[in-house]
Amino acid sequence: MRIEQDLKLGFKDVLFRPKRSTLKSRSQVELTRDFTFKHSGRQWSGVPIIAANMDSVGSFEMAASLAKHGVMTAVHKHYTVADWAEFIKRSDAGVLNNVMVSTGTSDADFQKTKDIMAMTDELIFICIDIANGYSEHLVEYVERVRAEFPDKVISAGNVVTGDMVEELILAGADIVKVGIGPGSVCTTRVKTGVGYPQLSAIIECADAAHGLGGRIIGDGGCACAGDVAKAFGGGADFVMLGGMLAGHEESNGEVIENDGKMFMKFYGMSSQSAMDKHSGGVAKYRAAEGKTVLLPYRGPVENTIQDIMGGVRSTCTYVGAAKLKELTKRTTFIRVQEQENNVFGKE
């Protein structure tokens, strides 16, 4: 047993220090990033925000709405091959280029991914997603998927330390998904005692990935637009959002009426709700590691994604970054013990 004494930080522990800026308006800030990925050689251009591959967030409807803004969606893995065929038939390339096909690591998952990817060349992203990215099985599966799809962009995770980021990139991942336990409906840290403060995880994992020409997704922990900006400032190439995009018309969650008010069910993908829906219940050898909540129904996602993007643009104007790509170079974080004045409640 050993103890690391170094301070590790979450989004609530810091604020951006403002700097002189030549920008007159947030409208001058460019949020689009252009990436060329290490292994696939693929190029992609868009706003590097991703709707999470949760079945009450990452729906086909969400993908269609967010693609209008150049924003991505990691579509959840519980759609059938027939569902995908129908979605592909009604979608143009602008949507499909901004979609990640999510998969687990079983043989059945592998075959399903092959079937989906064979339908169109417009699908270029594969998201290999398991809760514990420290499994050697994940490394082997990344190698297998890379061999099968040499020209596709492969994301794999989740991990929180540089050593595993490097191993996954060397195995064939273009992008590594970073985050264990920070999500709003994740209880991994409570049930297992395992985790890593998300901002420090992003900073350390970005450093490891960029040294090898790889990229990272900061996945989880964002509760407001300022957190999204902090994730980018810490070095995340992409930021994945679950709870911030849940509860919307396009989220595909179960709508419930209570006392005349509309709510939408939102739950973690290791929760009792998800296990009951997709796996016949929680297996006897494990515990549920997610919670189920009811969110006030929020209508179309349009206003929310505009608000998030507007917040990040505003951050950039405060630190003098004309492009999102420049934000991390212009970032100085200051440690704080308070974030906001809540005398009249939280927004």
TrEMBL record:
Domain (IMP dehydrogenase/GMP reductase) ranges: 9-338
GO CC terms: cytosol; GMP reductase complex
Membrane spanning residue stretches: none
Residues of the active site: 186
Binding site for NADP(+): 108-131, 216-239
GO BP annotation list: purine nucleotide metabolic process
Keyword vocabulary terms for this entry: Metal-binding, NADP, Oxidoreductase, Potassium
Entry's Gene Ontology molecular function annotations: GMP reductase activity; metal ion binding
EC nos: 1.7.1.7
UniProt-listed Pfam families: IMPDH
Binding sites annotated in the UniProt record for K(+): 181, 183
Family note: Belongs to the IMPDH/GMPR family. GuaC type 1 subfamily.
Function: Catalyzes the irreversible NADPH-dependent deamination of GMP to IMP. It functions in the conversion of nucleobase, nucleoside and nucleotide derivatives of G to A nucleotides, and in maintaining the intracellular balance of A and G nucleotides.
Subunit structure: Homotetramer.
Protein name, entry field: GMP reductase
Source organism (scientific name): Photobacterium proteolyticum
